[in-house]
Design goal:
The chain is α/β, with parallel strands linked by helices and 175 residues long. It has 7 helices and 6 strands. It has a 4-stranded parallel sheet, with helices on both faces. Strands 5-6 form a two-stranded antiparallel ribbon. The radius of gyration is 16 Å and the shape is globular.
Length: 175
Amino acid sequence: MRVLMISNPQSSGQSPATVRRVLYAIRAVPDIRLRSVFTHYPGHASRIVDGLTRDDADVVLVLGGDGTVNEVVNGLLPADPAAANAADYPALAVVPAGSANVFSRALGFAPDPASAARELAEGLAAGSFRTVSLGRWDEGWFVVNAGCGVDADVIARMERARSRGRSATPLRYLA
């Protein structure tokens, strides 16, 4: 099985120790070929996977938060939903390393990256996959939810705070 792991080093829950634990768990899967790439700027995850097909990788594993998951989904899939055939694209796997990790939690994974990686490794070894529905908004895809109004304002303010070096915390979201 060919796995491309995309890690966002800016994710609030990621550290070199976290990456090592995740790599250790995933590399323990029999017959796995793992390639790991770090993102370097916003939008980079989308560029990394742009044009990627099942011929290139069986699974794209995101080590990051919901934003990185969103970038990967939108980088993989075409803008035209009629052109999207799930069989053409690698499966998506997620190990939570962001501040909220809504998508990973909705899938039932442990909130701790190392524990989630072990759960994911067991699923990969067993060949266990499941289908999730995606949503569309304007020209983009989303996997968990789409916000507008107050929700969108909160996220925009959080992104501005993060661009100034502040971390995303539950208290900061509340404020």
